């Protein structure tokens, strides 16, 4: 037997379909991650002045350090340590390789991106700023972050020289600004939780601060504040470890 719709039934069906909410198309994950990166690094070649403060488990201030970070193309960064306790020290990142330069020596020392600078801020947290270059992202889905809708992405490391093997990342639904992240080690242990504080809650254009909460032992809080960003192209020799070690004053 063939079922047919009367004109009235057909009209009711069409009306119901029009009233039902349409499902939004899933966003392009590559674009989401690229947009999120632009809130942290707005240009390929930058100098970023960075202030790192640590707080004890009871919330009292502990230490403060200042860093100047030069970023360039090809996953290259140079971190200059400015505080008296670390004056003259440098960390260079080229691809998956990290070196530490100490004042008074001409031999760069290889280090890992997980090596601590201060508190729970590692060399990788300061020197590597672009998720889209280091991770493969998949969309988990749309969720609620506090009172606003957000996108939940799961990031898997594509390179060995990254601080975290996996990152669970939440972005704003409309502007794709980073909101928070869970940061996992190679062992899949949750190492830190991060919150990202923008310049404006209503219309964010950049991330001004990253707050790291230790999840392994001390429960300390580390705040990484980006006090200024500016376009700057530096000499290629600054990204060569041997040349950098021979030229400690960066002339």
TrEMBL record:
Residues 1-24 form the signal peptide. Keywords: Signal. The keyword Transferase does not apply. Residues 75-246 form the Uncharacterized protein TP-0789 domain. Transmembrane segments: none annotated. CDD domains: LolA_like (cd16329). The keyword Nucleotide-binding does not apply. This is Uncharacterized protein TP-0789 domain-containing protein.
